[in-house]
Amino acid sequence: MFGSLHTRSYYSFLQGASAPATLAQRAAACSHGALALTDLHGTYGAVELERACLLHNLRPIIGAEVCIDGAHLVLVATKQEGYASLCRLLTAMHGANRLNPHADLVALTTLDPSVAILTAGREGRASMLAEERRNADLHLWLDTLRSHATGQLFVELNDYDRPGWRATIERLHDAATQLSIPTIVGCDVRHAIADDYAIYDAMTCIRLGINVFDHHDERPVNDARCLRRLDELQRRIPYQDAFQNVATLAAQCCVTVLSAEVEPPKAKLAPNDNPAERLQTLCHDAFPGKYGATTIKETAQQQLKHELDVISDLGLADFFLVVHEVILEARRRRIRTSGRGSAANSIVAYLLGITGVCPIQHNLLFERFLHKGRKGTPDIDVDFDSDRRAEMIAWMEQRFGHDHTAMTATLITYRLRMAVRDAAKALGWPHDISIRLSKSVPGYSNHPVRKYAQAMAEVVGQAPLLDTLLTLVEHIEGAPRHLGQHSGGMILSQRPLWERTPVQMSANGVTVVQFDKDDVEAMGLVKFDVLGLRMLACISETLENVELSTGEQINLDDVPLDDVPLDDENIYAMMRQGRTLGVFQIESQGQMHLLAQHQPECFADLITEVALFRPGPLQGGMVHPYVRRRRGLEEVVHLHPHLEDLLGDTLGIILFQEQVLEIAHRFAGMPLDEADDFRVLVSKNRDREAMEAMRERFINGAMARGVTHADANVVYEKVSHFVGYGFCRSHAAAFARIVYHSAWLKHYYPAAYLAAFMQHRPGFYNLMTLEEEARRCGVQMLLPSISTSGLRYRVEQTNEGRLAIRKPLTSVSHCSTDVAQSIVWARAERPFVSVEDLYVRSGAPYDALQGLALSGALDEVSKNSRTALWELGVVARRHHRGNEAQQTLFDLPLVDAEDIPQLPPMKAQERLAYDYTSHGAARVHPMTLYRRSLNDLEIRTIETAFRLTVDEHARGSALPEITVAGIVILRQSPPTAHGVLFVTIEDETGFVQCVAPPHIRDRFGTELRQAALVVRARIHAKAHWRGLLLRDVRVLNNVIGGYAGHLAMSGGRDVFVVQP
Amino acid sequence: MRLIHEPIDVSPPNGIPQSLLWRHTSHQVIDVLDSWSSRRQWWTRDETRRYLLVRTNAAVMEIYSIGPRWILSRIAD
Question: How close B39 gets to chain A, by Cα (Å)?
Fold first, then answer.
């Protein structure tokens, strides 16, 4: 058996050009019997290698190339113990230096004897010494290695087809023979086939930051580092023993990283306690509280029994108990949690408090989460209050042990734009051209790069290198660039993680395994998604704000907010009217439009609402039929009588992932595991061949159940259109609960809610729009104040007894948390009495104090903002601190505070401008300053569009026309909109979405990019919702505010100018 | 070694060279000292050069082939 024992794949991050699967395919084509993957400092590609080797009937060998004592060595694990030992060494090396992992020679003595050591290729010290003819040093090095090696040591012989290399191999072989160390052929592969040499060279240039015209010793000079046939190598390396040793070593290797068994972490149990029984007890204890007085008690009991059986059979009781323990700890700490994803299909998860939605009541399918045929571990995703997620992660590390916990990795791969940029630079194009080339293609695309060849040619002309660039990009796109950290996937392992995977440190100091979530699942490791959700932080803080401002406590029991009724008509009315800015998931203009069409009346409608606005249903054309059926405008028709049960509650339309699974299972007769595979296949819609095979399976299965071929085909077509990303019903239900709670809090406690919302900013509107929304809700916004503002948005009672929101010091520009803390600590000693007092005692930098003065926060310790600024300048010079930029070589003369002149107050335009620059929003809406002039020109308020009665069914010229003006607060052009641009404008009375179809977008492209607009448009209506179909667009000059809160002001004129 | 870079006749053209004909003078190959390949400038013209360092009865010569053509690259008298 022959095979490459020293192979780098593209998991060496720009130090190898081919995927493990490609290498395995090539190895098989070369008639090799084994393939080792020895990526640099990691086993990142081990799972992929093992799968590919299984496919090509190769023996997979796992190892790594490491830097020991400044020189490279190749370590190959022959047994499982050796792999664990290798992982442990790699973990220690990454721990020693994150950017440049290394270890001392002594580390070799800690390796298991089943780890074979190869002296590596040109980067190895042995080869270097042999190449330099330093025979004595070579002998010394080999002898040193031998004295440190616990297992087999081999001198690696490779053919690089370079000048003088034959002599180098001879010297290596002679030295090995003299020291009685066996030699071995390593191959030192960097790319699968010879022609990939160019890709490897380009990757090397990218890594080294050079271009192909630069010389560098690390660049390859030929294509010798590809996988080659045995006979070819034998002609180049005349040492038969070195080839025999390959076969011997390869035959010893029997490491596997794939595992058929799941190893959940151990739960804390009393001695002699059984996890399955403990789980059963916990569920039965919680059962009466949740189902005791309900009509679904019987069904729930049956479902519970079924789920407990499945969980017990799959050996997952421990896992549920562990997650339960985490949830209990979060509750103990009053950290809000919410189970999401398919886990919400489980009544066990509901009874344990992991999720908050009853699966029986909402018709959730457990089999989407777990079934007896399920491969791998189930996903339990739990959202935590984002502010306190790190606290929970720290607790979990403590509880389960640092060696037993780490985050899942995410492989950051080259996307199209970055691949174009880096490849162009490597080919020698100047930086600015490379940037322009990269901007001529989309950031991410499913299309091949050659589709954009014309756009790229417009940048560089028909340059001869353009075709080379396209070829390079084809190969580089999708290649791993670096290892990232999964947003929340935390691995909890029964055994120390270093037995299964190397663990390394991410840039932010978090431990990360070297495998992504799919690999982790294949390895039998259990992942628990600990996600941070800012809306949960917002809800938690809202409740605290309510308690602090009114003393009222809103249910902080075990299942938070559960006593908030889910059928409050006021809440649904608010949603139907589109007053959902700031409400979780349904605050976008698109969602407001859908709400107006859908007219939700109950919680089930809310679940559907959340699920409808996803790429799957949108692209599958399922939204409008569903809405029409829900409103009784279209008859409910089922494709086949067998589907009535499955799609009855969604009126014959496929909306949820569970329904795809159920149709495959119950309509087409597939077993659950196969039906689940079908669901995944349909959702991803990537593998055409597999889809075709599945079609046959689906139709045959349905026909076996008495369905005609034609009917089965129709149903298959419909199901297969459920492509792209769609929600599972359980996930939608879990999110709908948060939607409802956030809406409820906004409706009944607007001040407390919006203060928390501004603090956490879980939505996508800018601060100015949020402040306008607060005013629309009757909540006053109070400016930052040096006497009362703290570090967070706070609810205050005004003199009139109304609740208002006080902006924090941290809302002021340059006023960081540290600066705000120093101010608050100084204020706690005694209140500030003057600008000088503040300057001296707080120690705050000049920039921050200037921001505070501009915002009006210092008005209480000065006459007004302008005077505060003057005083600040005086005290800064007097105390020789800060504002380095304004210091001169010679100190300016001291100015006494008494010399401060009577300064004029700021004009309205100035005030607005300073408000925006200093604290991100104005105290009045900018449009108010222009209302009188706008009225003169019969330009209406946005509110007018909402007051007009419009026939919903009218089209074209039958729609009323209106001219309105506003600042742009949002621009969107989602891929599902086919070139339509949505621009949301706002004035002091409200906001409205303007729709620019492609022809309008092309015609008014420049205008639509401006910050404030006057638009003439037809009003489109759906219930309370209004949208404007643009017909004409003009720029509104000199208005402050606009998109992302930036200034649109170009001068100090008091009147606006409508451009011709 | 002197840089020459001139065409040279090699026989046999494939396999191990036995004799070289350069500037109307024949040189017998005594030994092949080294061989290597170079595949540079793939971004302009993708060509592989197969180099041989040979000892002849007159000198040590570095020759390379590109496809069927042979070039005398350098010579050490």
Answer: 5
**pLDDT at site A620:** 75
Residue contact B43–A468, C-beta within 8 A? yes
The answer to whether B51 contacts A163, with C-beta atoms less than 8 Å apart, is: yes
Q: How far apart are CA A885 and CA A890, in angstroms?
A: 13
* Structural element, H or E, at residue A284: helix A275-291
> Which one of A222, A232, A235 would you mutate to disrupt binding with B, by most B Cβ within 10 Å of its Cβ?
A222
Is ipTM beyond 0.90? yes
| Sign (positive or negative) of CA dihedral A269, A273, A275, A277 | negative
Helices (H), A477-588: 517-522, 534-550, 569-576
Give the end-to-end CA distance of chain A in Å, rounded to a whole number. 80
Window 18-47 of B, Cβ < 8 Å to A: 34-40, 42-44, 46
Where does B8-68 show beta strands of DSSP type E?
Answer: 9-11, 19-22, 25-38, 49-56, 60-66
| CA A876 to chain CA centroid, nearest Å | 44
pTM score: 0.82
The reply to whether residue A161 touches residue B40, judged by beta carbons under 8 angstroms, is no
The confidence score (pLDDT) of residue A1058 equals 36
Q: Using alpha carbons, select from A410, A409, A427 the residue that is nearest to residue A419.
A: A427
The nearest CA of chain A is from the CA of B34 a distance in Å of 7
**Contact at CB, B34 and A164, closer than 8 angstroms:** yes
Mean per-residue pLDDT pooled into runs of 10, chain A (1060 residues): 96 96 97 97 97 96 95 96 96 93 95 97 95 96 96 96 93 96 96 95 96 94 95 94 97 91 82 92 93 86 94 90 94 90 90 90 86 76 93 93 94 94 96 93 81 91 89 94 91 91 90 93 89 94 92 63 74 93 92 92 92 81 89 90 90 88 91 85 72 87 92 88 75 91 94 97 90 93 96 93 94 96 96 92 94 94 90 82 51 56 82 90 88 91 89 79 93 82 93 94 89 93 91 83 41 32
Whether the CA torsion A484, A489, A490, A492 is positive or negative: it is negative
Please write down the long-range contacts of A144-150, taking CB distance under 8 Å and 24 or more positions apart: A144/A105, A145/A73, A145/A105, A145/A108, A145/A117, A145/A119, A146/A179, A146/A181, A148/A105, A148/A106, A148/A108, A148/A109, A149/A108, A149/A111, A149/A117, A150/A108, A150/A109, A150/A110, A150/A111, A150/A112, A150/A113, A150/A115
Nearest-Cα distance to chain A for B51, in Å, is 9
DSSP letter for each residue of A888-908:
-SSPPPP--GGG---PPPPPH
| pLDDT given at position A1060 | 30
Partner-chain residue, chosen from B34, B44, B46, that has the shortest CB–CB distance to A163: B34
Query: For position A673, what pLDDT does the model report?
Result: 81
Count of C-beta atoms within a 10 Å radius of residue A83: 27
Counting beta carbons within 10 angstroms of the beta carbon of residue A542, is it exposed (0 to 12), middle (13 to 18) or buried (19 or more)? buried
Please report residues of A whose CB lies closer than 8 A to that of B51.
163
Distance between first and last Cα of chain B: 8
Q: Look at B43 and A198 and tell me if their CB atoms are within 8 Å.
A: yes
Q: What helix, strand, coil percent values describe chain B, rounded to 5?
A: 0, 65, 35
* CB-based contact B43 A165, cutoff 8 Å: no
Q: Which residues contact A272 (CB under 8 A, 6 or more apart)?
A: none
Q: Could you tell me which residues come within 8 angstroms of residue A57 by beta carbon, excluding any fewer than 6 positions away?
A: A28
pLDDT at residue number A545: 95
Name the residue ranges covered by the structural domains of chain B.
2-75
- Alpha-carbon span A916 to A1045, nearest angstrom: 7
CA dihedral sign of residues A909, A911, A914, A918: negative
Please state, in angstroms and as integers, the Cα–Cα distance from residue A122 to each residue in A129, A211, A317, A848, following that order. 10, 22, 52, 56
